[in-house]
Each structure stands twice: as structure tokens, then as C-alpha cells.
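sry for the spam today, last one i promise. C-alpha cells for design, 171 residues
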């Protein structure tokens, strides 16, 4: 009878250790799959995963325009944010307000354009959001807000009149 109690106690201890070990392994697997620290994808100088070259070019129709600020690239999935905004009705709220709230704390990668209207940024793979502005000699202003999916090979994004978010004329 004592041997049976000893065997049962031994089995209970083994099962308890297996349960605790299983919980630890499951937690570790979840932890490993969490997104990496956001600061890694925000700084071009410290991001070792930023291996994809993205060229941003002003198109032929905008040759007399010059960038009025650096091109900003945000590690952000704009399409997913739009789906989230549309999924839950928000009376009286505009998407721009929702986007501004969601973008708090997201630091952009900035690409400084050259005199030819070209800018180059090195990014990691994934979904990005491009924001750029250009000004014409007559005072007109173009702004772009484009979702971009960055893949392994180098890519070029052409900023045109057709894909501009906003075209402001000066009167």
C-alpha cells in the first residue's frame, strides 16, 4: 500500500512538472512571435533588417516641382487602419483624426531628396506609408499619401499627378 502511494505521488509530481514546463514552453513560443521592438524599424541607421532600397521619383508631369520637405516613410499598414476604421462606426469622426491618433509615437524614416527630384530610403520588408509634398514655381502644392508594400528586391515609387492625395492651387 505504501508503494502504491509512493508511485501515485511520483506520477503526480511528474505530471505537475510536465504541466509547468508545457506552460513555460507555450509562453516562450508566443513571446518569440511577438513583433520586434518598434524602434528597430524606425531608425534607418540601427535597423539591420533595412536592406531593401526604395527609390522615390517625381514623375515627368511634375518636373518643375521640387520637394518641399523630406519624404517620410512610416512603418504602418494604412490599408489595415482603413479596414479597422470602417469596421466600427464612429459618428462624427473623420479618418484623418483616427489616423493621427493611431500614428502617435510612430517615427518616420526620412529620405532627403536630391536636386533631380529623387530620394532613396533603405527599409525592411513589410507595409509602409509614404508621405511627401512638392511645390511648383507658381505656388501650387502637391501632397502624396501612399500605402507601399516593400518586398525583398529594390523598388521604385513614382509620384505623379494621378496618385497625388491633394493638389492645392494658389490664387
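last one done:
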Amino acid at each position: 500500500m505504501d508503494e502504491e502511494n509512493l508511485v501515485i505521488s511520483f506520477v503526480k509530481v511528474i505530471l505537475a512538472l510536465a504541466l509547468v514546463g508545457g506552460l513555460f514552453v507555450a509562453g516562450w513560443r508566443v513571446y518569440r512571435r511577438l513583433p520586434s521592438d518598434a524602434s528597430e524599424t524606425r531608425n534607418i541607421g540601427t535597423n539591420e533588417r533595412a536592406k531593401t532600397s526604395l527609390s522615390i521619383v517625381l514623375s515627368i508631369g511634375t518636373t518643375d516641382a521640387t520637394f518641399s520637405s523630406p519624404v517620410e516613410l512610416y512603418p504602418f499598414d494604412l490599408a489595415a487602419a482603413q479596414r479597422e476604421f470602417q469596421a466600427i462606426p464612429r459618428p462624427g469622426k473623420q479618418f484623418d483624426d483616427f489616423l493621427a491618433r493611431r500614428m502617435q509615437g510612430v517615427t518616420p524614416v526620412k529620405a532627403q531628396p536630391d536636386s533631380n527630384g529623387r530620394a532613396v530610403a533603405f527599409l525592411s520588408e513589410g507595409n509602409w506609408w509614404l508621405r511627401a509634398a512638392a511645390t511648383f514655381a507658381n505656388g501650387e502644392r502637391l501632397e502624396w499619401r501612399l500605402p507601399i508594400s516593400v518586398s525583398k528586391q529594390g523598388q521604385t515609387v513614382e509620384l505623379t499627378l494621378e496618385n497625388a492625395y491633394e493638389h492645392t492651387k494658389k490664387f
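The longest strand covers residues 126-136. ok im logging off now
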